[in-house]
Amino acid sequence: MLERWKIVLLLSPALVIIAGLFLGGLILGLIGSLGYMPLLGREEFNLNAYRNILASERFYLSFLLTFYIAFTSTVIASLLAIGAALILRRSFIGRSVINFLFQINLTVPHLVGAVGILYLFSQSGFFARLAYEFEIITKPSEFPALIYDPLAIGIILQYVWKEVPFIGLILLANMQTIGRDYEAAARVLGASRWQCFRHVLLPLLFPGLLAAAMIVFAFTFGAYEIPALLGQNYPSALPVLAYQAFTDVDLNARPEALAMGMIIALLSVIMIFGYAHLARRYVRS
Amino acid sequence: MRILPAVMCDLEKELEVKRQRIESGEGLSWLTWFSLILLISWLILPLIPLAVWSISRSWFFPDITPSAYSLRAWSYVFSNTSEVLPALGVTTLIAFCATIVSAVIGVPAGRALGLYQFRGKAAIELLILAPTIVPGIAVALGLHVVFLNIGLAGSYLGVLIVHLIPTLPYMVLVMAGVFANYNPNTEAQARSLGASAIQTFYYVTLPAILPGLLIGSLFTFLVSWSQYILTLLIGGGRVVTLPLLLFNFASAGRNDITGAISMIYILPGVVLLLLGARHLTGRNSAAESLRQI
Amino acid sequence: MTNVSIENLVKLYPGRSVPAVKDVSLLIETGSLTALLGPSACGKSTILKMIAGLLAPTSGDIRFGDHSILRLPPEKRDAVMVFQDHLLFPYMTVAENIGFGLKMRRRPKAEISHAVGTMLELVKLDGMATRKPNQLSGGQQQRIALARALILRPKILLLDEPFSSLDANLRLEMQQLLKSLHQEMGMTMLFVTHDQEEAVALSSKIALILDGTLRQYADAATLYGQPEDLDVAKFFGAKNFIPGISSSGHFECALGRLTLPVTANSNGSMLTFRPENVVIGVTDSAENSFHATIESKKFLGNQTQLRLSKGGTTFDASLPPLIAAPLLEGSTVSVHLPRQSLWALP
């Protein structure tokens, strides 16, 4: 009995703040997206905002673009991270230096990476200049558009740049926990290097990889500043569209902004539960 | 921004790792080296033009390197008339306060989650984990109206409070990991030897959790330091932090000043990495705590 | 069938100055059940891993029959290892675990499932096929690990302390199982243990490894009764060590001129005999008999230990408690050391 009160006492400040701010924000967003905004003089519930955005082509294009960006960058980053982790866990000369360099952009904010990508890949950027130097192009506009482009290559490059070390380190930590014994057991049982990776290491890493990929997907789906800096205007990424609607002089756009916020939140919640479900079914040890 | 929570490697684990490294003593083939170098270069490459831009005077297409160098951008950044120094102060202050508040509230919560098993623990962990995954824009859009109404929108306090949404859960998760490896019996031992509750905390608990707390605090600082959309939405343009300034200069095409601000902006992270690089590669990670769902 | 021979094997881990395995040569006969015995960290597991292909030796050779296997990767060696922690793949069912090796060899599904069924019966776990490893007890898990290796019918089965994480009763049960499996399948098995009782109970031959060196390779009785040197004797629990000189079948020491068995070392300088072989009170034979004083007496439950002294030299004898009961501290008794119980160490 005493211990229970102790736990309640220890937890409640944090829970009050997190529930108040986080759940509160989500609930207020939900209510607002349903049109109920007493502070703006609206006191009725309706689904107009959802109806409006679901009827607009702009929303669909934004949603698809955002999904495509998030999915592509997560998959590419995961694949590269697996490769990097497989190399970095081996021992070789200079490993500690390489390890440090591998982690260096982990603490670099996304925005800085985005600016760096901009200076590298814009049509007057470093790679365009290199192309000019080697006489591949004669003027900036001949360099393929990788920034503000419909395929969002600049955005994806930025996310991949930032997320490979993140996923890679999670995988390395997982590999360290798993150890090499399972692989040794598989090898003596007749598995080749590839079979060993495919049938033993990958399944063991799978929950960790899935969790990391899910975090990355949710983040890339809801990030504002990177597509705002590197993305094209139409269609824009969903968070950018939501922000634009929110700051629109027409207050009628505000419930629509909140509705888009809800859709972003919903997707990340689906991610969390999807992961939890998969992980539970996959391994329970 | 998300970062791996820091980790305490106990000596034993480190020795074990060293042993494994020695046992598996294998080199890399040249192809592996090539792809490794390629990857690492790619990871560092975007930072280089920023550094070069910050000291260039003119760098026009198609020059590979600047045609003239100067410290113009840096002297602008440090001049009294620029907004950079005030923004640096504001960013630091908010991050510092968010870290302190998160530590004061997060350490007890981390202790409860790390040391005790109780009904509803999984649900509470999920609630604490969720804000680190659900994008901030979805939450901040909803909070904005209320913050506006009670006068927090556009204020430093409002931005500080909204920064707690990512920082506090982060600190709780880190401290839960620290307390999971902590033996509370040492406290009982101290009490039986005559220490008061406060003495016990100061002489027994604090020293034991201090390394984890420090690293956790540094990362929490960085989480607040990197916030963009929360500051933009709740600060409403009146609270100008470094990332907001950086974004403005970048979209205005002032590449030299953007480069200089970027260099200042990444500094705490790089310092932190230098301090805590050893602790980063450990077992506990954001994903590890996700496994508890 | 082929013998497995290890020739002048050396393993020096990078960054160490002393090799973990120093020049070990060993011939493991086809169909034998051999133990590599030694204290922990003596290099025995390293030898096993080198045979399995998980570690590369610094020098030396390992041959299956006439062929060196050093250049083969682990999966091609046909030497399967069972680890101390069962290392069952947690995300696979019991059946999938047992069938893993055959699946890696791309055998047809029907063949695999039939073989798995047979194996499950053999280790007495039929009906467990669809369970996950974490639903099994420690003993069951280790049996699955055994089955997973046996199903491949390797040229040699390597067992690295397979039962040391089990409790005492379970360990005996598993030893029985392993012994009967060995008899049934006639497979060559090499197992590592630090437990001399386990080594003695299971194996036909024991290779004693101390500090990375092979010290003696013989059957259990020889290791107990005729250790090659003092270290071997001490490892097998010998107690009494009396210095002296051996000459022409006799040993001159503080206990007198004792007659040695005919097989004894000719140039011994240390006499050893087991406390349980000391005969007290009955002196039919004049050979190797003398009087000694009981210095102290200790009751140890299933036996009583006497410390005896003669001419300033002390030695231990152990007797059944009932027989030792009338013997008093300080009294003099007649002692007989049967010739066959004596052994002279160099």
TrEMBL record, chain A:
Domain ABC transmembrane type-1: 63-275
Topological relation to the membrane, as annotated: Multi-pass membrane protein
Protein name: ABC transporter permease subunit
Similarity comment: Belongs to the binding-protein-dependent transport system permease family.
InterPro entries according to UniProt: MetI-like, MetI-like_sf
Organism: Sneathiella litorea
Taxonomic lineage from the root: Bacteria, Pseudomonadati, Pseudomonadota, Alphaproteobacteria, Sneathiellales
Pfam short name (any one): BPD_transp_1
Keywords: Cell inner membrane, Cell membrane, Membrane, Transmembrane, Transmembrane helix, Transport
GO biological process entries: transmembrane transport
Location relative to the cell: Cell inner membrane; Cell membrane
Parts of the chain that traverse the membrane: 7-39, 59-88, 100-121, 151-173, 200-224, 257-278
Record GO cellular component, one term: plasma membrane
Main location: membrane
Automatic annotation (TrEMBL), chain C:
Matches recorded under SMART domains: AAA
Lineage: Bacteria, Pseudomonadati, Pseudomonadota, Alphaproteobacteria, Sneathiellales
GO cellular component, one term: ATP-binding cassette (ABC) transporter complex
One Pfam match: TOBE_2
UniProt cross-references to SUPFAM superfamilies, sorted A to Z: MOP-like (SSF50331), P-loop containing nucleoside triphosphate hydrolases (SSF52540)
Keywords (A to Z) from UniProt: ATP-binding, Nucleotide-binding, Transport
Start and end residues of each ABC transporter domain: 4-236
Listed GO biological process terms: quaternary ammonium group transport
Protein name as it appears in the record: ATP-binding cassette domain-containing protein
InterPro entries: AAA+_ATPase, ABC_SmlMolc_Importer, ABC_transporter-like_ATP-bd, ABC_transporter-like_CS, Mo/tungstate-bd_C_term_dom, P-loop_NTPase, Transp-assoc_OB_typ2
UniProt superkingdom: Bacteria
PROSITE patterns: ABC_TRANSPORTER_1, ABC_TRANSPORTER_2
One MF annotation (Gene Ontology) recorded for this entry: ATP hydrolysis activity
